[in-house]
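In response to a reviewer's request, we include the raw inputs and outputs for one of the modeled complexes. The two entities were modeled together in a single run.
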Amino acid sequence: MLNKNLKSWIDVKADSDFSIHNIPFGIYSDKNVKHHACSAIGEYIIDLFELESADLLDMPRDVFEQQYLNAFIELGKTQTNKVRLRLIELLCDENSILNKDKAFFNKVFKKQSNVTMLMPVRIGDYTDFYSSIDHATNVGTMFRDPANALLPNWKHLPVGYHGRASSIRVSGHSFHRPKGQQKPADSEVPVFGASKLLDIELETAFIIGKSTEMGDSVTTEKADDYIFGMVLFNDWSARDIQTWEYVPLGPFLAKNFASTISPWIVTLEALEPFRVKGYEQTPKLLPYLEYKGDKNLDINLQVYLKPQNGKENLICTSNYKYMYYTMEQQLAHHTVNGCNINVGDMMASGTISGPQPHEYGSMLELTWRGTKPLKLEDGTERKFVNDNDTITIRGYCEKDGVRVGFGDCTGTLLPAK
Amino acid sequence: MLNKNLKSWIDVKADSDFSIHNIPFGIYSDKNVKHHACSAIGEYIIDLFELESADLLDMPRDVFEQQYLNAFIELGKTQTNKVRLRLIELLCDENSILNKDKAFFNKVFKKQSNVTMLMPVRIGDYTDFYSSIDHATNVGTMFRDPANALLPNWKHLPVGYHGRASSIRVSGHSFHRPKGQQKPADSEVPVFGASKLLDIELETAFIIGKSTEMGDSVTTEKADDYIFGMVLFNDWSARDIQTWEYVPLGPFLAKNFASTISPWIVTLEALEPFRVKGYEQTPKLLPYLEYKGDKNLDINLQVYLKPQNGKENLICTSNYKYMYYTMEQQLAHHTVNGCNINVGDMMASGTISGPQPHEYGSMLELTWRGTKPLKLEDGTERKFVNDNDTITIRGYCEKDGVRVGFGDCTGTLLPAK
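The model returned the following structure tokens for the whole complex.
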């Protein structure tokens, strides 16, 4: 499926996330543009509204000048794929007007460093799964019982819960350390204050590309028709608030103060060449969760921690392929009861940990509940995230010299208000 | 605060929910109108777009011809209260053009029985609390330990979780019994099938009337500025799916297949005269949850079950005043960590049970897990909801002969697909 012969007349560095094989979608703004849909190649964004204004995409132009990509995505995969393939064509054709007409080039192409990326979609409902077996095992071992780390339902269904959509922000934002109730082990009663155990969760998420009606279910076989693409996701978590509040109805204030997503939606079509075999699932699942083919994805994932005025420290190297449940299974499960989904809904993976300690996707696991602090290059240590630390998640697929990546998913923790 | 002298020139029956003291807001459609904002008096809806078209409200007219009330609510309480008071004025003034001009009357007033009420707001995020002490105690007694029915956090914070907004439907809808995984007590492994324990939850919900920014917190003192009004809410629940799935991250597929809200938002201003003293809260709460004044509400609540082609059976009589936590406390808790809220967000009470068995707000409690079936007037019994049963929640305040009610919150359970 990978056409290695594709070559753009635009110079793209070998380590760029935005090769000719990617062509993701996002929304940008700059001093002249309030919000336009765009794609990316190398160090540039490509203004799709300007391209369509020159009749180069054969699409309704208004979908490219909206605040979010929802209207574009609602055109359907036939149309959005057509746009992506057309962009690849224009970017590979040396005789394209884009390559020949410098003034037009400058209208359409802008350096990524000169624009601001905005939220790519209006997220209606946001769901978070809990589908990494290493993460669930680590958490179960720490908080419950190493001998029975996984709860009885875990290997029978992709456990998930509803999250807060309002506080999801695009990469580059900052937010204040949350305050809330915690119950210290040595206290009879809960206390109120800033969270002391502020954590990250390395996740990815998929964006729904096709709506259903209430009562409809999406099978694992058809699921890919409903998945527009993927983003990186940091599900910031206040562990001390979480421990006290989450029984019996799940995480609430421990998570809904802020989450970060990357601005580029990498399409499922761009990710297809990087499919790999799924996790071996034993015991056998109920039929509605069975699937055929290679449905996992080989996505390299990294987490960096940068202290204020300091350097980036690579603190975690993981991979999406460690997921026990696939996106297709998650979506089939989510809709098997008739729950309807809408274009722009976001479904996150849950923390993606691998089997090795450096592959753990949260500080909770990386420092094993603070017992093994991380040592940073500046000599300081971290048990959890400190005030003014910046966390960046990066992710990319690589195969046969072809790279498709997500760009940065960055958020900065400010001190409590 | 209750002006008992108010009297409309429109005839309003004593048992009408829509007295001159109410003046709620909603959205309707009929054969000529796609969606207009409206209020209600007696057996009529009042078309606010038509009123404003005659310059009678002094508001931007476009907020009254939208699919949802969000834009109207975003005008702010000063404006929305002004509209409500202006309506009361017009409806009490015998010399109003509405009373004098029959043709105009017929343009503005329509029999409620001749229109279809639509979803009143576009709900961004939906939160469900768990704030009735009798409900939490009943559930804890049944599923955990009668001696320690309430979990340690329950009396320290209003436990809540995020729900699914996409499947909330307005009164009058029907939906199919959900299918999903359950684990029967006598089975080693989970099975798949239609839920056998389909339940209701008698709830109310409040609609957010003013947005905040991330990082902001709303105090209990200021909370009422952010609450536009209330609706009735049925949080349909599949108990067998819930029991198997909900540990450790809370209810998911057991609830997100369908929820029902009543179409009329009764404003906080209309409810103010029915404030009563709040539940005695011991132990003392952390300062951010303390509040002053009478912040509970005396709202009579009823649940009716109607078999297909049968009669309505009153199966529960409860009251909002049994709530342990007030809306103001719920909102202060929800935002204490900086979680931002948006106009149109909905926050539900959780099942509202009273101390007496006929006051329990779910079938689970009313039949005590199916051990004490309800006897209906047609001689049949119910442990949970049967296919083709229609459930209606009703609610109203009454004081000194003045009544303010919510109208019906009705949903019908169809057989599994």
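As requested, we also summarize the result in words. The longest strand of chain A covers residues 390-399. Chain A is about 15% helix and 25% strand.
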